[in-house]
Task: structure prediction
Amino acid sequence: MNALLAACLILPLTSVATPAAARACGGHPLDFDADGRPDLAVAAPYDATRAGSVTVMYGSGKKVKLTQRGAEPGDSFGSALAVGDFNGDRCADLAVGVSEEFVGERVPGGDGNGVVQLFDGSPEGLVAGKELRLGKPSSDRFGASLAAGDLDGDGRDELAVGAPSHRSGGAVTVYWMKGRKPYQITQKTPWVRQAANVTDQWGASLATGDFDGDGRDELVVGAPADSVKVDGQGSATVIDVRGRRAELLTQSTPGIKGAAEKWDNFGAALATGDFNGDGRADLAIGVPGEGLSANQRAMDYGDGTVDVLYGSRAGLRTDRTEAWSQNTLEGKPRYYDRFGTSLAAGDFNGDGNDELAIGVPGEKAVQVLAGRSSGGLTRVGNLLVKGKGQDFGASVTALPGWERYRALDRRRPVYGLVVAAPDQGLIMYAPGKREPGRVELGKVRQLDKGTGLYGYTFG
Result:
């Protein structure tokens, strides 16, 4: 049945009037099918001999599996996902990274060229659209990361596509900037001006957010293997694409807490949310390789930390950053926890401030920090959520009001926490509760199960 539904999705829409077609897209950023309910896309890039698939769990209860036309073993369809309104029709669209596809002959053991497959939202659900690829593909892994945001302020989302294996150390291509053709940015771009090494993985993670409140999103590019001063310390670059400005952030940046050390992987995960309710986005940066335990050996997994920077009129502030670890939170830091491997922001208690969910897969857990109007994130009442699966917490996301399969509240929606254990293909869910002043999640329950690293990433 799933295969039949997936096949239907790639057929063009007909002009026959149906009740679904009579609906208009309502502009909700998480609604693919215009029914007023948020939807969830779950990637399984190793499904079907690593050809990959993406399962869409609609808020109505319908479940559809998407696959790629001409899928081949090893393509990794679903290596990254991003949701945004890319065509301006007020329906949410889905971008799917296929980072290991070869445009020409497959190179045994080589990195893929990569493509991105678009699916357009419509009152009938997601429909296969155009495919994006680089003009001169190499071993780029184009589509290994994706992010959507309104980078030019025109009311329509742009798509940023990471290619962390691109030639000199990585690249990001931005699509649909007003008045521009696809625009590629690298560390060697004149206004970025960064040293580039082939191992940097610039573009391995991406995020967007309006940090200065001017109505245009900025783009954040993570390079977790960037050797700015020491091997693999990692970096994150905040980019104003329209203004052509870039700011490099590392643990060597004055004001950012923590010390840059080898293999910290600063920038391995990124998330944006409004943790203090001031209307500007704040940035959380995962540092899962950070070592806190005594006698930790080189190249061991890290205990992990997360750095948080807050937005302001002048953009992200580096003079009052925070560094979070389990040294001050529930749980005990251990050298294999990888605290900060995954990040997500969402308002789990309905008070208007986002909370931060932090994946701790080595502990099979997710740490949740509460946001508040006075000061932002706080350790008061922090939660350590445990679940099933060997790597529970390897990926996380937040979804509003979804457990009831009903239309979104007109008031502030309460988000629930979605967590994956991809090695076991388990998707778990814990509903939020409208509890102003504190954070309390409902019982963790299994939402779905699949194969092929099911839950590797969410959209």
Remarks:
- The radius of gyration is 20 Å.
- The first strand starts at residue 40 and ends at 44.
- The helical segments are 2-9, 19-22, 47-50.
- Residues 2-9 form the longest helix (8 residues).
